[in-house]
Fold:
Amino acid sequence: MLKLKKILEYLLYLFVFLLPLQTRFIYQEFLIKVQPFEYGRLSIYATELLLGLTIVLGLVFILMKFKSEKLKISFHKSKLRMILLIIGLISLGINILLATSHELSFYKATQIILAFCFFFLLLIIKPDFKRLSWVFIYSALIQSVLALQQFTAQKVVANKWLGMASQDPNVLGTPVVLTNAGRWLRSFGGLPHPNILAGFLVVALILILFLSLRDEIKTSKRNLNLSFVIIFLGLLTTLSKAAILCAIIIFTLALFFTRRDNEPNKKISRLAIVALAVLVFFTVSYPALVFNRVTNANAVEQRSYSERVSQYGEWAQVMKSNLFFGTGIGNYALDLQKVKPNLESWDYQPMHNTFLLIVAEIGIIPFLYIIGLCIYFARRNKWQIDLFNLSHLPLVSLVLLMLVDHYWWSFYSGLMLMGFVGAVIFLARDSSAK
Structure:
């Protein structure tokens, strides 16, 4: 059983390292006005196969653990949990049946289930936190180097084996920052959008912060500092306002939480000074980019802002006819056609607020059920919330970024990243308690 656990641990490390990989087989596409629709592509990702194998072995491990330790299941507890599970499955079934596209809803539901399985496997196997963090950081380093190359070359070269599409700043619809010199491409790394890369790198920066507080080996410190500089620079090349602001808030909170603890506060202060130096260097090197991105002083920024504001009105209209059981998981953008039928296919996007998007897609009743379930398990397990615990920083970053974007729910990579961040919150707390 110990050998199987070790195999599972390394499979999880491999999956975490490959999280940014977008290699996939698209087996069906939904079309809007004879145009491909990104949020209507049904695909099988290469990493899904790896995760599927890990889940199967994980189930075998759990069964072996029950058998070897002769664990007894409380009938009362298992009965209650079974009832809660059945209620959840019925709600999910109703949601899929009422969806505009049953296929799309079922497909998205399977991805959400996989993300939950990934989350629970990390909690059950409990891989070494330091190793897990380094695996994620190494993956983020590769993405950052790729981002820096894209930023300087001002193009993304297509690679079908990595699942990367070509990106040209001169093509309308490509994420760019507009300056007097022209359209400047934001970095993608190997991910589908600069904002997703930015969220990935913010998580990596938090893990570097955690490791810097625990590691006393000089070599590790040097590696952490170098990794921090490269990853933070990679984050800046995404030009994601939300993620960069989130990183600033995270480090400000970390300094505040450790204000009475001299040694950790010094370590965080050093990282903050390094981050400030990198930020100043980037601003001096690209003043027009930073100015235009921060001030919304051009047509691209103004259009982006107005579109996001208008999405709240669109959300309210969609909710009117889908209040109780939602549009169906993954169907929000499809249902948006009923509200605005004259847009182009690429204009139909999910709501840029993950919480509101979830409410719209699953409905008020299932959403309240999930909230109640979380409160029930929190009280039953006597979870105590320490507002000033550094292990909650991943949760803070998750909430902040979910408030301003949708990829945590609408993209496969976002769902898996959310599962990872959720597990890190618990693993970091348990690791610090040792």
Observations:
- The first strand starts at residue 24 and ends at 32.
- Residues 129-153 form the longest helix (25 residues).
- The chain has a mean pLDDT of 89.
- The two ends are 24 Å apart (CA to CA).
